[in-house]
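Good morning,

Attaching, inline, the backbone tokens for the sequence recovery test we're adding to the shared suite. The designed sequence is right after.
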């Protein structure tokens, strides 16, 4: 019957549209993966983790702000358990320098082998494209310890990092099966990852859902990310596109993934921190709980 045919064609169209959209999403995600093939860990560290962005003498420098947020979150006493997973570690270690005192097992992860190798080098013999000592000293000071306790903190960090694993946040199971406990980690940390590996907000929110499957119910997520950023340099001359987020989008993405937002702090980038390696305007820090 003609009516039925039209109906069938109509519903076929309805069925195909999401599939087409899914294919477009996958193509856009693949394009992001290709972008990352040119990522240079040493250049990225130089651009983002040296002064003025990492100036421990300046109260308005971006790295001390991030370290203070992480220190506060881990000192509040509400995050407990054994396993902390850092999602998209890149070549950096600052994000686990407070958490390594609270959790007995820390798992670092990244999509790129060059970044995992960079982390392994520091874990094995302290060699690295960046000297992490001033970071360790600063976090010791935040904890009320002498800066010279930094070597103890470095030893603690080396002793609790159990693995440096490959991850892909665009896969429903981002880590290989069996690499973390079946009921999930007790805490997830992720810094500047989701917005800088996703083509748009919908895919970012989907990736947030994927990583949430790594967290046990009742566990905490600490998310740090860029606001208003459309690109950053992953190597000299390599512009990696970023989803330009605002505060409301961060909140709605967390809410739609089922999180209870416990705290949101915002850092506005002073003019002196705009050093031509990205167009970020601010940074958010979110502490959330998975019910
Ligand atoms: C902007 S860097 C952030 C690095 C570090 N967390 C920091 O705070 O500076 C983004 C990281 O995401 C990683 N990445 C790229 N694609 C990814 C994917 N599909 N899944 C997980 N991580 C990915 C990159 O290799 C890179 O290390």
């Amino acid at each position: 019957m003609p009516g039925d045919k039209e109906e069938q064609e109509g519903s076929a169209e309805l069925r195909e549209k999401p599939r087409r959209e899914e294919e477009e999403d996958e193509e856009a995600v693949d394009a992001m993966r290709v972008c990352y093939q040119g990522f240079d860990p040493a250049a990225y560290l130089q651009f983002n983790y040296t002064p003025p962005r990492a100036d421990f003498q300046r109260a308005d420098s971006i790295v001390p702000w991030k370290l203070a947020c992480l220190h506060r979150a881990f000192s509040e006493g509400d995050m407990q358990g054994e396993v902390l997973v850092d999602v998209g570690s890149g070549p950096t270690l600052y994000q686990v320098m407070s958490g390594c005192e609270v959790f007995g097992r820390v798992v670092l992860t990244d999509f790129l082998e060059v970044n995992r190798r960079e982390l392994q080098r520091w874990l094995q013999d302290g060699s690295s494209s960046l000297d992490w000592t001033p970071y360790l000293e600063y976090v010791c000071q935040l904890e009320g310890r002498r800066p010279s306790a930094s070597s103890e903190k470095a030893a603690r960090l080396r002793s609790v990092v159990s693995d440096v694993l490959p991850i892909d946040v665009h896969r429903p199971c981002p880590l290989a099966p069996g690499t973390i406990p079946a009921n999930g980690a007790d805490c997830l940390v992720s810094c500047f990852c989701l917005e800088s590996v996703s083509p748009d907000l919908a895919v970012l929110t989907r990736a947030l859902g994927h990583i949430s499957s790594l967290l046990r119910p009742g566990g905490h997520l600490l998310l740090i990310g860029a606001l208003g950023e459309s690109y950053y340099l992953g190597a000299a001359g390599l512009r990696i596109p970023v989803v330009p987020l605002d505060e409301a989008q961060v909140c709605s993405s967390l809410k739609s993934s089922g999180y209870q937002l416990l705290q949101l702090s915002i850092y506005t980038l002073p003019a002196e921190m705009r050093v031509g390696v990205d167009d970020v305007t601010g940074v958010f820090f979110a502490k959330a709980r998975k019910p």
